[in-house]
Each structure stands twice: as structure tokens, then as C-alpha cells.
Design brief:
Elements: H1 2-6, H2 13-19, H3 24-36, E1 41-44, E2 49-52, H4 64-68
């Protein structure tokens, strides 16, 4: 999700939901939660893509090497 938003390559909501294997409503819930966390995500009708309006992003990292130690 992050990379598609950062590249401004999400497409319109239906296409973005399909790319993420989410329902349209789940996509909107996820985007709303990210906004509540302080990420300024906007939609451009001209570009037909979501984009970050500033430098804030959400990064989730799972380090399996630490789990296996």
C-alpha cells in the first residue's frame, strides 16, 4: 500500500482496493485509520491516485530473524 501511494500509482478507489485484495469499504476504513494516525493521504481526481501530501508515512516492519533467535 505504501509504495503505491508513494509512487502515486494507486489508481481510482475500486482499482486500488483490487490491487490490495480488499473490499472498497475495507480500503476506505484502512485509509481513514492511517489518517487518524496523522498521515496526510489525499486523492487526486486528475491523477486518479492517492498520494502523500507531506513526508509522513506508516512503515510496518516484521523481523523474522529476531523471532527465530
Amino acid at each position: 500500500m505504501d509504495s503505491l501511494i508513494a509512487m502515486k500509482a494507486t489508481g481510482p478507489p475500486d482499482e486500488f482496493a483490487y490491487k490490495m485484495n480488499l473490499s472498497r469499504s475495507m480500503l476506505f476504513e484502512t485509509l481513514q485509520e492511517m489518517k487518524r494516525m496523522g498521515v496526510d493521504i489525499r486523492y487526486s481526481a486528475i491523477r486518479e491516485s492517492y498520494y502523500y501530501a507531506d513526508s509522513r508515512r506508516i512503515v510496518i516492519k516484521i523481523d523474522k530473524a529476531l523471532e527465530e533467535s
